[in-house]
Design brief:
heterodimer, A: alpha/beta, Rossmann fold, six-stranded parallel beta sheet, two-stranded antiparallel sheet, 12 helices, globular, B: alpha/beta, 2 domains, seven-stranded mixed beta sheet, five-stranded mixed beta sheet
């Protein structure tokens, strides 16, 4: 395709900042979990940094996303503050959800993170509702539903894409195809070779892109966002990627082919894009190192803040079940 | 006072709510006027009056229907989603139970889900095993959901208005065979507080707690018992989650004998919960153990005699009350 949107230098730098934030946050999460200071189920997004980082370049804070349990990258790319995030991961009262949601249910409406679900496929039906609200209000907001390749085999995918297309909703379905449904390979459980082909069944544009390539991902995202904003309806993007770690932290990932994994790690998109930024003169090594050091310091601060915060009071068990006036 | 049936009362409640608040939306299968305003016409006239933007006919996609309602509600709309039949909630349970019920809590109160899920059910139309179950106990067992089930036009109107104005997800259960039951029409400002039962008949010997169509079955039983000098108090629960503990316990403390009647099967049901609470609170004061009457513990059968025999009838209620009174004589 010609004349596709290309990110300018500042946009590229913004995308890299999100990517390295996600990578550094992931590395730190794994380290802190190993110390025993943090007890949580952790679904590493390492290897999938480019997808939300590049797409978020076309979104604003007022756009909505719905993401899933493997969604730290989506949240960080959308702007959830580190302190609030880490306090929630640590189950503290200062967390995004007062420690009541945890890593699989991070919610932060201020940055547009409306729902994080622990149920495969369930980001999509709710994303449609947010998009319906925007359509009714004509507020030009766009909603992104993130999900994995496994979620395209659950009924909610079919119902949601069909409804979004029938109603021409301003929603973007972003399938992060990391080639594994939990432990099972993509080929073994998916009838089609390309999930993007399924878009034809819903009469909506569908595109497979290299989700580890910043320029491809940016172009696909920018076009889909523009289409949605202008009333052109939904898009299905299948972003090809690879999960560097097992399904959940502690999973030995014996089901991942070793050579395939080694090749993916060798092609790690984060250092690859970093090198490109330097080669093309978008940034200097010193600038990027400084950016990374700042993120390390922000992580130190967020973790200290989280671990130093109080746990929620037991009274929280009866709060937020219903509206306050009836909670007692 | 003019008379109106339950179906029309719900229709008026929806229309009045849509007129009063432009954030109220209606969605579901066949709800638009091009589709005749629903399979029995509960939403008839709404799309013509309020437009296809706010009244949306959906594909047969229950997860997508509830998901769309949830999403729109997260940012301020008040959608009323129709799941045509209560058995069809089973294919949307993830959206209802894992999401609608829990998002307020899991988000630490940052978001909430002010939706109403309208659904109809009830035996009596020979619809067999998958079209008329009462599944209210499943939903009442889920923290974060409200469950109501009116049995009169005025209550239907008042509860629907209250559910739409409530900030939490409400399941509004409509009984198919009694849609055309007539009663006084409610005023436009009429509301029924969620969690409030009504006392339909005062009595001193026994309390009958019923809801939905079982209220209509209980009424002739109460009249028949009165002929024999048995004074039965009849409570219409109206709201199952939360249920009106104060009214039920006060009545139980007065009559010391309680019968709970519902169309849902008895084991693990709403009757079990109410019975348990009555025993916990009033054990020493009761003249007899609380009795439950519910549907037979089988899928709803098709054959007419079997279907009639499945759900409690007036004669069953009358017999159960007499058995409760006999119990005292054994002591």
């Amino acid at each position: 395709m010609t004349n596709r949107p290309v990110p300018d230098a500042a946009t590229q730098l913004g995308i890299y900042r999100r990517m390295t934030l996600i990578k550094q946050n992931d590395e730190r999460s794994r380290r802190v979990i190993r110390t025993g200071k943090l007890v949580m189920p952790y679904y590493s997004p390492r290897g999938q940094e480019v997808i939300p980082s590049a797409l978020s370049a076309s979104l604003t804070a007022s756009d909505y996303i719905c993401t899933i349990y493997r969604g730290t990258h989506d949240m960080l790319a959308k702007g959830v503050p580190l302190r609030d995030l880490w306090a929630e991961l640590a189950g503290r009262v200062t967390g995004t959800c007062k420690g009541k949601g945890g890593p699989m249910h991070i919610t932060h409406p201020e940055s547009g993170v409306m729902v994080t679900t622990g149920i495969v496929g369930s980001s999509m039906p709710i994303a449609n509702g947010l998009a319906w609200a925007s359509q009714l209000r004509r507020d030009k907001r766009v909603t992104v539903a993130y999900f994995g390749d496994g979620a395209t085999n659950i009924g909610a995918f079919h119902e949601s894409l069909n409804l979004a297309s029938v109603w021409k909703l301003p929603v973007i379905f972003v399938c992060q195809n990391n080639l594994f449904s939990e432990h099972t390979t993509f080929e073994k459980c998916t009838a089609v070779a390309r999930i993007a082909d399924r878009a034809a069944a819903y009469a909506m544009p569908g595109e497979r892109v290299d989700g580890n390539d910043v320029f491809d991902m940016y172009a696909a995202g920018a076009e889909a966002v523009q289409r949605a904003r202008e009333g052109g309806g939904p898009t299905l993007i299948e972003a090809m990627t690879f999960r560097f770690h097992g399904h959940v932290f502690g999973d030995a990932d014996g089901y991942i082919d070793k050579a395939q994994k080694a090749a993916a790690i060798a092609a790690d998109p984060v250092p690859r894009f970093r090198a490109r930024l330097i080669e093309t003169g978008v940034a200097t090594e010193a600038q990027l190192s400084e950016m990374e050091a700042t993120i390390e310091a922000d992580l130190d601060d967020a973790i200290a803040y989280a671990l130093g915060s109080a746990f929620p009071d037991l009274a929280e068990l009866s709060r937020d079940v219903f509206a306050p006036e009836l909670a007692a | 006072m003019s008379k109106i049936n339950i179906l029309t009362a719900i229709n008026r409640a929806l229309a009045d709510a849509m007129e009063d608040d432009d954030q109220v939306l209606v969605l579901g299968e066949d709800v638009g006027d091009a589709e005749e305003g629903g399979v029995v016409g509960v939403t008839r006239g709404l799309s013509t009056r309020f437009g296809d933007e706010r009244v949306r006919t959906t594909p047969i996609s229950e997860q997508a229907i509830i998901g769309a309602a949830i999403g729109a509600s997260l940012v301020g709309f008040r959608p009323v989603a129709e799941i045509m039949l209560m058995n069809f909630t089973t294919v949307a349970m993830d959206m209802i139970v894992n999401h609608a019920a829990k998002l307020r809590f899991m988000s630490g109160g940052q978001t909430h889900v002010p939706i109403v899920i309208r659904t109809m059910t009830g035996t009596g139309f020979s619809s067999g095993g998958q079209h008329c179950d009462y599944l209210e106990a499943w939903f009442a067992h889920t923290a974060g959901l409200r469950v109501v089930t009116p049995s009169s036009p005025a209550d239907a109107y008042g509860l629907m208005r209250s559910c739409i104005e409530d900030d939490d997800p409400c399941l509004f259960i409509e009984n198919l065979p009694t849609y055309w039951l007539e009663g006084p029409e409610a005023e436009r400002n009429h509301r029924v507080k969620i969690g409030s039962a009504s006392v339909l008949a005062e009595g001193s010997d026994v309390t009958i707690v019923a809801y939905a169509r079982m209220v209509q079955e209980a009424q002739p039983a109460v009249a028949k018992l009165a002929q024999d000098g048995i004074s039965a108090e009849l409570l219409d629960l109206r709201s199952i989650a939360p249920w009106d503990r104060a009214t039920v316990l006060a009545s139980a403390a007065k009559t010391r004998r309680v019968l709970i009647v519902h169309e849902a099967v008895t084991p693990f049901g709403v009757g079990a919960e109410i019975s348990s609470v009555i025993h916990e609170e009033l054990f020493g004061d009761l003249h007899a153990p609380v009795k439950r009457l519910g549907g037979a513990f089988c899928p709803v059968p098709f054959s007419r005699p079997l279907e009639v025999g499945f759900a409690p009838q007036a004669s069953d209620i009358e017999a159960a009350v007499r058995a409760l009174l006999d119990h005292k004589r054994q002591h």
